[in-house]
Design a protein that fits this description.
hydrolase (chains A, B, C, D); fatty acyl-CoA hydrolase activity (chains A, B, C, D); alpha+beta; 22% helix; Thioestr_dom (chains A, B, C, D); homotetramer
């Protein structure tokens, strides 16, 4: 599997695009790791992110999983292509109320049009790690979209 | 398909549980329709909900789809059972930047333990309706969880 | 949604391609309905299609769902494009051991590169109809592939 | 993650159940590896398994992935519980026409009612290995079903 970036400034491009996702800012998500085909995003527990039982809402968990998978894909795209999520599936394995949620997005198969990525989400609590969710994502590269 | 509620106060219960989802409040989502096995949730466009191109973030779209599907399921649960999302899959059909996003959650197959629901999300703009996303959800009924 | 076929001989093309799927022949599947964006495939119960409890194997159910969705998509493709399944998700709603299984593939969103389709599978028994499965499919149009 | 079998004769039970899947016999599939929470199933290329371009039909690929995931789950079930697939999602990564298709089912999260498993399918050709598909599966343990 070839995970060489095609855009020399892929690193800056991914970071700038992430910073431009107002939704990630609204959730309080941070990009904490970036390598070709690999992006980690972290979310700290806040009441604003919970569902009715005090766990992270599946939507919050999925949102950072989606961004992690999407930016893992974008890191491999050529300079003039943007990224859109075409579809994804996610299994919520355990209810999560840890202080930190970490989503690890990894490219499974890069492609010119379609890139397949996976994301695993972990709840981190004082050295303990719980597998919170696992998902599969299809990302589309869109020409002429600034990312 | 039997869509009779088993809890006489299902209506109040779903509304109270939705009101207790701080994440929905944080997004600005509103429960706009409620019937046995059917829940609609609406989200008004705000910059805080967008990704890098100014469209609704897939995570925001999925979040209201998930809550709509989950509450459609909960509306049919017995009094002492709560709802958790086990997994879902969503296809993002069109990028969405309409003033209003409407998620329609509908139960496909009710069950004692597992309920299958679908959700369709539409972008609404001055009478025009765009099909933004479609998804399938597995909801679990959890005993002893207050909802 | 525009469901106009782009290939004047779409009907013959879909039927010929289905006839060339040796796997469908091996299962005993028949194409029983064909319209632009809509294909129904039928499977008669045989012991060779069952799992360990005597129900249709999820793989058999999924296979006709996949072909129904794929050919619903192909019916709308231009003449020199073939169809491949990129991904799908399927929920098995009820165990099926009816005499006939019917998969209804319908295009949800046609597209130049990606077409999204759904398929619902029903078990038919003497006028009774059970909803056996529901799925969502992403189909890719591939140029230069004869179909 | 606890992958201890709860049934002392789990090994025999999984092998007998697989042997009772007439559909697997019809496809020519073989169970080639079995450990607690892990099952590999192999399929040799035959014309009867192909779609219209001569590749393995997505339905054949998915069928062995489903059985591999299902039996990986069953290997951990207590003695009087059978296994049913509730839902799955699969991404077809590469068209496959290798001599051998190998599906590796692995439990991701065991559970009393729901078990989540993944399956990866590889095309094997003279030492070369191509990643053909990856999927996520929800398996249900059903009491009183002989498996």
């Amino acid at each position: 599997m070839d995970l060489s970036p095609r855009d020399p400034v892929w690193n800056t491009r991914v970071r700038n695009s992430f910073a431009a996702q107002d939704f990630m800012t609204h959730l309080g998500a941070e990009l904490v790791h970036l390598a070709p085909g690999a992006v980690d995003i972290e979310l700290k527990m806040r009441r604003e992110l919970t569902q009715q039982h005090g766990f992270f809402h599946a939507g919050a968990t999925s949102s950072i999983a989606d961004s992690a998978a999407g930016y893992a894909a974008l890191s491999l795209f050529a300079a003039d292509f943007g990224v859109l999520t075409s579809e994804y599936k996610i299994n919520l394995l355990n209810p999560a109320n840890q202080p930190v949620l970490l989503a690890r997005g990894r490219v499974v198969k890069p492609g010119k049009t379609l890139t397949i990525a996976k994301a695993d989400v972990y709840g981190l609590d004082d050295g303990l790690q719980v597998h919170v969710a696992t998902g599969l994502f299809t990302l589309v590269s869109v020409s002429g979209v600034k990312d």
